[in-house]
């Protein structure tokens, strides 16, 4: 039998003037007689009002709770602590057994329940801001220390949490600015699709949230730093965000079932269990200006399900401190813009998940930033705009530049420089529209020598085990030759092809189409100089099978130039373009402008055969069929 003890303790002075500056440490609470509470084994102790203590003891099997329809949080010396999830995959938390000493506050607050898919998450947060400003009934103000608060701004406050699933700030359909806040959260979150356990959440189409000079650090599973959802507009400027992985529950099974997902799907060639930020919902916006955003692995700036999402980074440093991870993620019809920023990433600058994502890497020109200030309603003053330096973007990637496992549009222009260990563009069987404009100095520098690699999607996907969707699929390398699809024309351009245009640029590297199913590689060079191999290929991974234990092998293949089967290579050399062929190339279409040229390296010659017949390559010429270029 469970013993329930109820205590009703009156709290005086809970009303405060909303417009006046208040010390952030001002917390109305009643001190218990003797300043202690002891909860015995098998006892449930209900705290009905906010209470201040000097000691709290909970025996194993004891529980301390709030009344139905209310939530309970514990702070010790201004730090939220003690709360853990009651089960893996659950949403409820409970203050754990033990003895707590110091300046203790048990805060009873109103509910902030957020529904997502089949679950409802009972949020607790240090600071809840609604349309009318700070909602003291939903705020655990004892966790907000230092600085001062009003209903429109928080200055120099600190929020620290070592419990699970506690949010720092939650703004719902309100306008709020945080100046120089410091937030430190350690311990696991639960769901970064809603921000359950995040440092800062801006939610709702009426929300405008500005973080100015913030310092945010988190360590824990899905302990996200910043989340913008439900149409919110979040601006982070002059801030530093750093997130580190936590320890997954021992019985957690990796899944892509989003209400339960707490780690990155390894099928992306990644590992990790916390992404620094997330953008989700309908027409949500998140802008990072003159800021630093790093995750350990997984991802720094993420975009998830929804529509009309806009992610922007201007003059910022973004990346991963670990070996694997991405800078940005682009899904749905999201728009991702990276201007004047430096990306130091483990795996990819951007993952394009499609099906209609638009991504732009370029310079932070005054015209571009001013246009974004208007479009995104950033509220930057003329003085702030003038003070922003014009910069070019630099990408340094430990693996690939950009990876497509969904359709999308990517533009690289201005003075953007993309440095990568492997291929600049990795296309896993997707429709692409890539444009690289080098007229202002953009450069592609893959250390592997491969600029564009097309392969079949090597994501094995999740599988169903005991009725659950789990990430236990295995990729197996095909052992048979591809079968010709007689209905697919390898000499024609199709809407669903992998297309790329290179304009006013010098390129040193190779372009390979290793697809097995029907998809052509369509390359257009405009006033460009290219030196390398362009060819249909036969590809092979370095290992025959890939699973979670060797996820890093995904996307890494060798190429053997070979005649196209269902993987045409279509090349168009527009005006002023010159291609120096450095090795055997198998094409299906080659078109030259009147002033374009195909050459061999100095001291060598290049020969073209069309369906086995040697044919001269002439300016203005157009050739289709089984084309082979050889260098002797």
**Helix count, DSSP H or I runs of 4 or more residues:** 2
Secondary structural class: mainly beta
Spatial extent as radius of gyration: 28 Å
How many beta-strand runs?
66
Calculate the mean pLDDT score and round it: 94
Mind describing the biggest β-sheet? 19 strands, mixed
From the spread of the alpha carbons, the general shape counts as elongated
List low-pLDDT spans. Answer: 1-26
Share of helix, binned: under 10%
Distance between the termini: 90 Å
Question: What share of the residues does DSSP label as strand, in percent?
Answer: over 45%
Task: Outline the structure in words.
The chain is an all-beta fold and 632 residues long. It is 3% helix and 50% strand. It is built from 2 helices and 66 strands. The strands form 9 sheets. It has a 19-stranded mixed sheet, with no helix packed on it. It has a 17-stranded mixed sheet that branches. The protein has a 15-stranded mixed sheet with strand order 16-15-21-24-27-30-33-36-39-42-45-48-54-57-59, with no helix packed on it. The chain is elongated and about 100 Å long. It starts with a strand and ends with a strand.
Secondary-structure blueprint:
Blueprint: E1 3-7, E2 22-23, E3 30-31, E4 36-39, E5 43-47, E6 51-58, E7 63-65, E8 70-76, E9 79-80, E10 83-85, E11 93-95, E12 98-110, E13 112-116, E14 119-123, E15 125-130, E16 133-134, E17 144-145, E18 148-149, E19 153-155, E20 158-161, E21 167-172, E22 175-179, E23 182-186, E24 200-203, E25 208-212, E26 215-219, E27 226-229, E28 233-237, E29 240-244, E30 277-282, E31 285-289, E32 292-295, E33 299-307, E34 310-314, E35 317-320, E36 326-332, E37 335-339, E38 342-345, E39 348-355, E40 357-362, H1 366-375, H2 382-387, E41 394-397, E42 402-404, E43 408-412, E44 417-420, E45 425-428, E46 432-437, E47 443-446, E48 450-455, E49 463-465, E50 468-470, E51 475-476, E52 498-503, E53 506-508, E54 510-513, E55 521-526, E56 529-532, E57 534-541, E58 545-546, E59 557-561, E60 569-573, E61 578-581, E62 585-592, E63 597-599, E64 606-610, E65 613-615, E66 622-631
Parallel strand pairs: 1-5, 3-6, 4-6, 5-7, 9-20, 15-21, 19-22, 20-23, 21-24, 22-25, 23-26, 24-27, 25-28, 26-29, 27-30, 28-31, 29-32, 30-33, 31-34, 32-35, 33-36, 34-37, 35-38, 36-39, 37-40, 38-41, 39-42, 40-43, 41-44, 42-45, 43-46, 44-47, 45-48, 46-52, 48-54, 52-55, 53-56, 54-57, 55-60, 56-61, ...
Antiparallel strand pairs: 2-18, 6-12, 8-9, 8-12, 10-11, 13-14, 15-16, 17-20, 18-19, 49-50, 51-58, 57-59, 62-66, 64-65, 64-66
